[in-house]
Batch of 2 targets.
Target 1
Amino acid sequence: MQSYSTKQRKLLLSYLAAHADEELAADVISRDLSHEGVSVSAVYRNLAALEADGKIQKVTKSGTRRAFYRFSDAAECRRHIHLYCTECGKTYHADVPTTDYVADRIESASGFEVDRSKTVIRGVCRECGKAADTTANAKKTVNNGSGT
Ligand SMILES: [Zn+2]
Ligand SMILES: [Zn+2]
């Protein structure tokens, strides 16, 4: 049974890695992983173990009793400025050239050493911006539709 539980843990870890820096509800994780054959109890057991090891952080939100978890790839996070979308709540990593450019500017201008893993710039991500544009365009062109 060892290999079976190791496999489930690996699937969970790769899922978390694919969603790095996102706040994931435990029930959503287990729902997504149930398609991969990972049991709900395995998800909860492994989340608790990973939290105890300090590999993931448990996030509590006011107004809900759901458990949220956040996985950060520490090595990756140290290299990137973080972009937080206030629309969908996702965190993105700015690409390395952008991060280096901004951090170098700040450091050379003010001598302030930037801890990249702690940086968060708030705004609206490309997906959410696009969705807003689509809605606006749909409204604009709603009278131009000629049917088929
Ligand atoms: Zn990060
Ligand atoms: Zn967004």
Note: The beta strands are 23-25, 56-59, 68-71, 82-85, 91-93, 120-123.
Target 2
Amino acid sequence: MAMTPLAAGGVQGPVRIHEKDGRLRASLRDCVAMLEPLDAPVPVAGPSKPIAIRTLGKQFLPRVAIATPGTDVSFPNLDHILHNVFSVTKGNRFDTGQYRPGDSPRVKVTSPGLVKLYCNVHHQMNAFLWVVTTPFAQLLDGRTGLQFDQVPAGTYRLRLWHPESGEKTWVIQVGSGLTQGTWDLDATLPPLEPHKNKFGRDYAPMADDRDY
Ligand SMILES: [Cu+2]
């Protein structure tokens, strides 16, 4: 027996990140959009594909990634120095220990939410992993806005997040046509959130090891 398809629509529109001086940020790099149903069960996300977050030039690449619960995340070290990755985010705590050039430690993320990743060696390294249960989640890098297709009709929470703006939410109605909007974020936070090392202490000042 064929199931009657539910009405589905699209959600589309520009996302704008406002700098402190009022100008618009040129790129939506590192911005994440998520759509979660409020009046229906969250559709089952597809099987989780492993993802890799590299360390290169004393930075995490990509700086922002999306995963689902159960996803394997590896951290290939493409530098010539030791790195570490740790998270003290509740529900997704881990510590890779220091690892060498060419190594690629692996962890599994389990709980939904935002996981903040840091390196215990280099204070300036930060990355963010969004663990989501909705299949409607996307990185807006290289786009001018968000676009979700084939969204079942209903009421949704639209969540937009950026490392320098935090999270903002809207409630939107999705019908059978195209739901359009313009969504604004304010970049008010510093690019690097003050944080402690994995022991909960201040980072030791270190000579800049440029030879990475
Ligand atoms: Cu490091």
Note: The pocket of copper (II) ion is lined by residues 58, 83, 119, 121-122, 125 (CB under 6 Å).
